Amino acid sequence: MAGVRFYQSIQFKLIIIYVLLILIAMQLISVYFVRTTENSIMSNFTVSLNNQANLIAEYVKPYLLNADENDSDASGNLYDSLNAIVNNFNQFSDAEIQIISSSGVVLSSSLNQVIVGSKSTQAEVNRTLNGFRGQAEDVVDELGVRKRALVTPITNDNAIIGAVYIVASLEELYETMDNINRIFIAGTMIALALTAFLGVILANTITSPIKEITRTATALAEGNFNRKVKVSGNDEIGQLGAAFTNMRDRLREALSANEEERDKLSSILANMSDGVLATDDMGRVIVVNRRARQMLHREADEIMNREISEILGIEKAKIDEYVSGAHPTAMLKFDFTDDEPLLVKVTFTPIHRRGRGITGSIIVLQDVTEQEKMEQSRRDFVANVSHELRTPLTTIKSYLEALEDGALQDPQLAGRFVSVTRNETERMIRLVNDLLHLSRLDSRQAILHKEPTDLSEMLDDVADRFSFQLNQKSIRIVVSCDPNLPHVWLDPDQIDQVLDNLVSNAIKYTTEGGRIEVRAERTNADFVTVTVQDTGI
Predict the structure, then answer these.
(1) Where on the phi/psi map is residue 94: left (φ > 0), alpha (ψ -120 to 50), or beta?
(2) What pLDDT, on the 0 to 100 scale, is given for residue 1?
(3) What proportion of the chain, given as a percentage, has pLDDT over 90?
(4) Does residue 147 contact residue 169 with C-beta atoms inside 8 Å?
(5) β-strand 96-101 against 106-109: which pairing, if any?
(6) Helix 10-65 to helix 72-93 angle, to the nearest 10 degrees?
(7) Is residue 255 within a helix (H) or strand (E), and if so which, with residue range?
């Protein structure tokens, strides 16, 4: 068996499964955790900015209430006070803080003093001063720094007297998130490495017994039934190993039994009195026994793997008809130079396999030479006996007729004697005639005078001829004939004789009140079957 490459093995597939499971799990966890952490940090950052803005608004509220924009000295003091407050808060938050009056003038700025006293250009500031509560917005300055801006109104008795504008950098938060991502990536790599290492160990515990079973199966396929599966444990693989061992034992027993059966079959085939050949689906001989070789006068290598049509001397199409047809027998005559002609009866039997149809055939060769000799002897005997008996019986019949004409003096005794003798003589003559007729039929010398005949009328005539005997025994006769049956080409006298014998026997062996049925029906396009059926013994 060819070795399996590592990337095609079950061990590699199990390791990949473990690694993918851990990778997917870590990815899902990291995505959920990072998203949740990011949302939490951003939310807390926004809440912190909002709290800081509210706190600053409370601090600067009194200053805005007491401010007088028309008084330059008061304005200067206001700017100084607000700058002090903003700078103190800026030391803790490191964010840009602006205090804006209700008219939109920047009163104080923690980072940019240039814009103090000028009009604020921030759209969100204008919306807040106009009474529209805004949300925190993310902005990117000219240096590409990501920041979050928040505007909180300063109110007094529901009147907006100013606003606090805070802009804080988000770079530190994003750096924190990047650090978290790097930690997760490192953890994932470590988890994957450990998973791969453990996967190799765990997969080896599963694949090692499977490899052992595979090696044992390979040895079993090569005919080595002594190798055992070395699998320990009671888990599924251990049960598989035990089942495999049991299967090995059962297979060894089955093969042993198969060998015994094959030896028996070989012994039976070798000692059969009939010849046996077997062919495959292509008609080639695959089995031949000793008797068949003797009958064919050929060696095994002259028969094996050769066409059966060539061996028997029959056309292949004719053999196919014998194998699949309704008449699977044929008579063959083998005329060998050394011996007398051999008359063989050949019987063809198809071999069927489920789902594939005919996959071969069995041919049985039966030597009927002696049987035919005996049949010929019987026919000759019947013919000789008939010829020997007919002449003296005819002479006796003529002599008794002369006696019956008055040759004897005692008419009463002579008449009775002559009558009995005459009846017996007639019966024996009929018997001899039957024997002669049988001999002629067996020797195929009988001449048939065929003519188109209506079977329906013929069967009715048979029933009429036996009406007297039928009435005496109260036997009912039924004649059934296919109405569409055409005239049949036959010898009426011969068929009448056959039907008379059959009906006579039916009457003889049927009890009173019985029933006899004479039926004629077409069996196929060329043949008609006539049946005489009775309810007797």
Answers:
(1) left
(2) 44
(3) 4
(4) yes
(5) antiparallel
(6) 160
(7) helix 236-271
